[in-house]
C-alpha cells in the first residue's frame, strides 16, 4: 500500500506541475443524467445444454433486462464526479433465485462507476475512484484485448495536440480477508493456523496507454502494464490462489485509405496472466477460485482489412491465439466469441486451445434505418495437452475436462433496425457446426437466435 501511495502522489505532483502553468477553465456547475437500457430475448437449441453430446434434449428460451443511469456532477472550476447506477434483472426462469440477487448481497441495483476527475489545466486531468477503461482501436465492447475493464485506482489523462497518454495505478484485489481464508468457521476472528491471511497482500496493476492520431484517417496506439500480486499462494481447493503477476501489453492501429480500411491489434501477456481479461461480475471483488495463468507466455492478434463498395463493406477477420492467450470476451462474431454482445455465443475464442480463425464479414446498409451483417467463419483449434498451470492450460483433449474444439464453422447474421432516434432493435441468428478433439463426443451443431432492444436517453 505504501508504494501505491507514493506512486499516486507522484501522479498528483505531476498534475501540480502542469497546474502551475494554467488554471482550469470555469464552467457552469450542475448535474447531468443520461442512460441506456437493454432487453434481450433469446433461444438456444438443445445442444447448448451439453455441448458435444446429444443426450440432453432440452432447448432454452429466456430473457434478461438492464437499465443504467449515468450521473455527472460538475463543479464551477471544472472538476467533476461520475457515477453509473446499474439496475439489472437476470434470467426470468425463477425470479426467486435470480443470479443478480443471489450474487450481489440481495440486491440487483449497484454502482459500477464512481470516480472524481480533477482537471489541472487543458493538458492534464487526474481521475480517481472506480472507473472503466478501454484501450484499443475500436469503441467499447468490440476490442480484442483490453475492453471495458473495471477497476478502482488513479489514472491520468494527458493530452498534447493529437496524442493522449493514460498512466494508471489500480487495485485488482485488495488484500486477503478473514472470510476468504476462514478456517475456524468465524469470518470475524483470526485463525492461528493461517497467520498471513490478514496482511495487506494486494494485487495491483501499473502501466500506461498512449494513442496518437496521425491524421484524420489513421490512429495508432499501445499499452504496457505490469501486474503485481503479493497474495499468499494457496494451491488447495477451494481457494486455488496462484500469484498472477507479470507484464501485459498491446499495439494497435485503425485507419483507411480511400475505400480501403484496416484494423489490427497484437497483444501479449505473461503466462501467469493468461485469461486475466476475462469478464467478471461487476461486484467489488472476485470471490471465486482463481483459475487464470499458465507457464507459457500468451500471444494473440488479429487484423481486419476491409473494402467499401457503395453501401457494402466486405472484410476478412484473420486472427490467432497461442500459449494459452485468450482475448477479451468482447471480441468475436455471433456464435464464436463476443459473449459481451451476443448472448447466444456458444464458444469463447482462445478457450481450450490455441486458435487460428478466418472470417468473411459483410455489412450492407439497406437504408438509413436498416443494416445487415453476415458472417462466415472457420476456426482451427490445437487443444491444450498439459495440466494447468504448468502448461498452456488444462488438458482439454478429453471431453470430461473441457470438450476442446478441433475445428468449427459459423454461419450467422445480424439485422439492425433503427425504430426511432436512440431506439434500435437487433435480430441475430447463428449456427455453429463443431468438430471436437475427443472422438467420443457428438459433433452436434448449435443454433441460437436473439432479439435485443437497445435504448439511449
Automatic annotation (TrEMBL):
InterPro entries, A to Z: Gram_neg_porin_domain
Gene Ontology CC terms: membrane
Superkingdom of origin organism: Bacteria
Residue ranges annotated for the Porin domain, each copy included: 19-381
Annotated region (Disordered), positions in chain: 181-201
Keywords for this protein: Signal
Record has Nucleus as a keyword: no
Signal sequence region: 1-19
Any single Pfam family the record assigns to this protein: Porin_4
Name of the protein in question: Porin domain-containing protein
Lineage of origin: Bacteria, Pseudomonadati, Thermodesulfobacteriota, Desulfobulbia, Desulfobulbales
